[in-house]
Design goal:
The chain has 13 helices and 18 strands. It is an alpha+beta fold. The strands form six sheets. An eight-stranded antiparallel beta sheet has the order 3-2-1-18-17-16-15-14, with helices on both faces. Strands 4-11 form a two-stranded antiparallel ribbon.
Length: 418
């Protein structure tokens, strides 16, 4: 039995029972016309699940339906778990947020920052502000992703073999050494940029704790929260529940140009049938909706679930406030490129986006809600004001294909009527 097996009456928790079904009706259209293979959504309030549904297929080619225990690639929904792991060590006094990253990973002590020039001959300068742990937690480190395709440093990552994957055989330590040798996109602390910061944070967890990241996760977070289906790989006994990954298949127009398609096609992806060499704290976990809901309930409860405390309540409060300088939002402080959140009216805490101004964001919701999503269009958010948790799973790359997240948010809040 999981948290999804015991549903409460939506009306008892302030939701209109008819209105909340609009979520299913809306996203069923995405499946019926081929935009999504299938989906799963779970909504809870005050720790009680009031709506849980699945629709469509976890594997269209084999005709396998999406079920309550379907396992997905969580991708960047791994990041909040890694951030929690790091803050558990912070609570033990193992580091301070202002500590230099190079204190634990010496390779980052000689960081250089891109200044000008092309990929073939970039000009760099020394970092005037050393990279600190809080820079990793807030994505203000200057690290980037190769798949952004907007800056010379992105191209340097791709040139080094870091785009949607990593060079074969590298473990997390080797990846961190490679990233440390590449120029930063900007001086640490001066901008926000989505990148491999949380992967580096995962390596800090390994170094500080003396444990591989998967072991730390299992012993300190996953087992205490009874997240039994969450792991960096999908073992044989769970393979039949593992969802296929899809992407929008390009179509040819009459003029011969490729255009967006409303038909999802199979995306080639690593099989994840054994423990990977590189344990990516920024995007490596697989898991279920029930497991992730328990992680979210722990955060909503101020760091505790079913008598097991993961974090102190003040730590959760601190992580989920805006940490961008001057209380800026991402539109002011971030680079205008892909991230798993909107930028207007949204700040960033220690591992989560934080809603600052829903009027600026143009989506109904509550200030103080914190959230993140994954590259395969998965998403979650936690609303402490309304005591709401929402988890949405599907498997379509990239997450920017359709406006699933804002639509889901408006459909949840329109059903809240108390």
């Amino acid at each position: 039995m999981t948290v999804l097996d015991n549903l409460s009456d939506p009306a008892d928790e302030g939701f209109d029972p008819a209105r909340i079904t609009r979520i299913d009706a809306h996203f069923a259209q995405y499946v019926d016309d081929g935009r999504l293979p299938g989906f799963q959504v779970a909504v809870s309030r005050r720790g009680k699940v009031v709506h849980a549904s699945t629709y469509g297929a976890r594997n269209m080619e084999d005709g396998l339906p999406w079920e309550a225990d379907t396992i997905v690639r969580l991708y960047s929904m791994t990041k909040p778990i890694t951030s929690v792991a790091a803050m558990m060590l912070y609570e033990e006094g193992k580091f301070q947020l202002k500590d230099l990253v190079s204190k634990f990973l010496p390779a980052f002590g000689d960081a250089r920052v891109y200044r000008s020039g092309p990929v073939v001959n970039p000009t760099t300068e020394p970092a005037t502000e050393p990279m600190r742990v809080w820079h990793l937690l807030t994505h203000t480190s200057g690290l980037t992703y190769g798949f952004h395709n907007t800056h010379v440093t992105d191209a340097l990552y791709r040139q080094a073999g870091f785009e949607w994957g990593i060079p074969g055989g590298m473990d997390l330590a080797a990846c961190c050494d490679a990233w440390a040798a590449l120029p930063l996109a900007f001086q640490p602390g001066t901008e926000w940029n989505y990148g491999v910061s949380t992967d580096v944070l995962g390596r800090l967890v390994e170094v500080i704790s003396g444990q591989p990241l998967d072991v730390f996760f299992r012993e300190r977070i996953l087992d205490p929260l009874e997240m039994s289906d969450t792991e960096f790989w999908v073992a044989d006994e769970r393979r039949d529940r593992f969802a296929q990954l899809y992407y929008p298949k390009p179509t040819e127009s009459a003029g011969g140009d490729a255009g967006p398609s409303r038909q999802a096609a199979v995306m080639p992806a690593a099989p994840l049938d054994e423990r990977p060499t590189m344990l990516g704290g920024g995007g490596g976990l697989c898991g279920t909706a029930a497991d992730y809901l328990r992680f979210c309930h722990m955060l909503l409860n101020g760091g505790e679930l079913d008598g097991r405390r993961i974090l102190g309540s003040r730590t959760v409060d601190y992580m989920t406030r805006n940490h961008l300088p001057g209380d800026a939002d991402l539109e002011q402080f971030g680079r205008p490129l892909f991230a798993e959140t909107e930028f207007d009216g949204v700040g960033f805490g220690l591992g989560f986006s934080v809603a600052l101004d829903n009027a600026a964001n143009k989506v109904i919701g509550s200030p103080g809600s914190f959230a993140w999503g994954g590259a395969a269009s998965t998403a979650f958010w936690i609303d402490p004001l309304e005591e709401i948790v929402v988890v949405f799973l599907t498997q379509l790359l990239p997450s920017s294909t359709y406006p699933i997240r804002p639509q889901l948010q408006q459909l949840v809040y329109q059903a809240l009527v108390d």
